[in-house]
From TrEMBL:
A Pfam family hit: Rotamase_2
Family annotation (InterPro entries): PPIase_PpiC
Organism in which the protein naturally occurs: Roseibium alexandrii
Gene Ontology MF, one: peptidyl-prolyl cis-trans isomerase activity
Domain (PpiC) ranges: 119-241
Protein name: PpiC domain-containing protein
Domain of life the protein comes from: Bacteria
Amino acid sequence: MSFLKEPFFHFALLGAIVFAWFSFANPEPFQGPSPGQGHNEITIDQPLIGAMKAQFRAKLNRNPTALELNGVIDNHVKTEIMVREAKSLGLDDGDSIIRNRLVQKMTFLATSAAQAVVPDDETLKAYLNNNAEQFVSAARISFDQFGLGETIESVDVVSVAASLKNGEQPDVSFLRFLPEAIKDANARQIDATFGKGFFEQLADLPIGTWSGPVRSGFGYHLVRVSELVPPSLPPLSSIRDKVLFGWQQSLAEDLSEAQDASLQEGYVISRPTPEELEAWVTK
């Protein structure tokens, strides 16, 4: 992806933008005292009130009343006290739920950065062509079928086929619970009705003539295929949202990998050698 020729640069740039947006759109209670505050001091200042009003307005589409805002402040104070006391007791150490939540927030930065990028049509066309297998429309078929029964030993298949080709209704008819005509259905739909592998057999039949017998999960059939539409790659204009979603998902994965690599550069990581690991496993 040409956009990611310098993934670390793009991650840093987009991550900074999204982090600023995230901090503005999702203000949360302080996780500890502000500079100059002691452990037992909680200050409800104007910026925090503004953040509370913004959250309230985002949820209910209106500003809070003074009484409602006072209730929000009460809840904030209770939450802040509980968080500080829990952290002072070390309750956050080794908590997998808290750790996973923090990882989710970090991952959110890369995902949001990707969603904020709107590529041009040329970029999306290139992604569509390079990942055609994700977007190819399934083959579809239309056909008529005549049920011969669970077995064909007692049926004059040639005579039945001749009658059908002449536009006549054969004297015998079985498997009446199955639809006689199917219009514009894909393999999943066909196999769900007639049994696995039925569509694959129909795809090899000639168009416009009665053929068979063809085996289904219920027995044997004579089939006349009227139309077979092969798999095709739709134009970008008809699946643009789907292609955009796929492109952004791919970008998010690339940014996440860049994020991991960039962050790991700031750490000294000591880990066992392959030999040590093998020895520990066998102990």
